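Example S7 (structure tokens).
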């Protein structure tokens, strides 16, 4: 399971705006191009473990500051889809 977590975390920490939009569409989550760009810029290089509840919560709060609370909720839905699989 750790390999799976490492792969997911690596993807999150290196994600582009276009990839984020693709995943959002796949999971029926509403994120626009501008929001995706802000989120991807924030995530890039942060080394965040979305499987850690505290790290994920902190990340969602930071996303809410830069992209808005609704977008943060949508991104959290995406993260929850990824961690439950």
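Recovered sequence:
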């Amino acid at each position: 399971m750790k390999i799976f977590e490492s792969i997911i975390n690596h993807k999150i920490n290196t994600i582009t705006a276009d990839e984020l939009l693709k995943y959002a569409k796949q999971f029926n989550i509403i994120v626009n191009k501008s929001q995706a760009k802000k989120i991807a810029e924030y995530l890039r290089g942060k080394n965040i473990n979305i499987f850690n509840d505290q790290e994920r919560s902190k990340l969602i709060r930071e996303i809410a500051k830069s992209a808005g609370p609704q977008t943060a909720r949508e991104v959290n839905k995406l993260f929850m889809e990824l961690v439950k699989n």
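Notes on this example. The helical segments are 2-13, 17-26, 33-43, 53-67, 69-84.
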